[in-house]
Write a structure and sequence with these properties.
- The chain is mainly α.
- It has two domains: about 1-35, no CATH class; about 40-235, Cytochrome c oxidase, subunit III, four-helix bundle (Four Helix Bundle (Hemerythrin (Met), subunit A), Up-down Bundle), CATH 1.20.120.
- It has nine helices and no strands.
- The longest helix is centred in the middle third of the chain and has 32 residues, at about 120-155.
- The chain is flat and about 70 Å long.
Length: about 240
Amino acid sequence: MSHEATHEDVQAGSHAAPEGGLRGVVADWSADKQAFHVPWGKAMMWIFLLSDTFIFSCFVISYMTVRYSTTMPWPNASEVFALSFGGGDPIPLILIAIMTFVLITSSGTMALAVNYGYRRDKKKTVMLMAATAALGATFVGMQAFEWTKLIVDEGIRPWGNPFGAPQFGSSFFMITGFHGAHVTAGVIYLIVVARRVANGYYDRTRGGNYEMVEIAGLYWHFVDLVWVFIFAFFYLW
């Protein structure tokens, strides 16, 4: 009888109205209740990406302000970022086009990794995340080559350059450097998550939930999207 009474008390308590007063407020807020059932990891990633959006927006707006306010001609991106192969004529923006293709392709492999993560296909998830990390590392390598060429061969500095407005160098290194740091961090992040998927870490700690793969995908897609805006505003405009 005592067991039945206890069970009934629990059932009655679960449907009871919230307690009033300050004690009721404390009880509600400490009960970890959710209006929208979104995992905390995903919610925190969205908040981080929102704050990062503000930072990148400030950089792009600052770049546009400087470009419109400078009295000197702005360097022609097609000439500055041209690259020749085998002694032929320079091809405008060829390296930037390849970098963009690589990064967009990595977004596709990341989307597939998330898809196979939902299906709990560990092998394909790990392979696709490794491919995404490899494409990201390739992008960073090409960006390092681009920086080396501009600094060593073209003489571009943050405080001046031989092509026109001196603010060009500072804008370029600030925007592409900040984005490159994000890509580098993303590559490390993907490797860590892929390694944990491979050794069964999430199977043991999250009951087979590959939620972290999706969270890593959110970050990677954001980095890819930011590059599209950088490509459009800095290289094509």
